[in-house]
Write a structure and sequence with these properties.
- Helix content is 32%, strand content 32%.
- With 126 residues, it is an alpha/beta fold.
- The chain has a 4-stranded mixed β-sheet with strand order 1-2-3-4.
- Helix 1 runs parallel beside helix 2.
- The radius of gyration is 14 Å and the shape is globular.
Length: 126
């Protein structure tokens, strides 16, 4: 089961931002629901931030979705990022799957915005 808490913010530059806090298990069973929510929020917001501090389990599909959401944001001149508050489960799974990197992958348009590089994910365990 997955739960969402949504907080909308008006930025000083007049752009809209959404903070999306997730809790529960994020896996192949419910990742499509999260995908739909992300796309819906990008329709009316410039920036989306995901808080994963309350998730209890994750699988590969979540990491794939986060990468896809990031690429979508770049393509549509939006901003997508992860909140620094993540669970040990998320970090362990990300490390096990090889997502955390020292440099951006070839698929990202703006390498300095890559979700998984040290600069943007400094709290991961080395």
């Amino acid at each position: 089961m997955i739960e969402f808490k949504i907080k909308s913010i008006n930025n000083p530059d007049k752009t809209q931002q959404v903070e999306l806090a997730l809790s529960g298990d994020l896996n192949i069973v419910n990742v499509a629901q999260l995908k739909d929510l992300i796309l819906d929020k990008f329709k009316t917001n410039h920036q989306l931030e995901i808080d994963l501090s309350q998730i209890t389990a994750v699988d590969f599909s979540l990491f794939q979705l986060l990468c896809s959401a990031h690429r979508y944001a770049e393509k549509h001149d939006k901003r997508f990022k992860l909140n620094e508050n993540v669970t040990d489960e998320f970090i362990a799974k990300g490390q096990g799957l090889g997502f955390f990197q020292h440099s951006a992958c070839k698929d990202v348009t703006t390498p300095e915005h890559c979700l998984w590089i040290d600069k943007n994910f400094p709290h991961r365990q080395h």
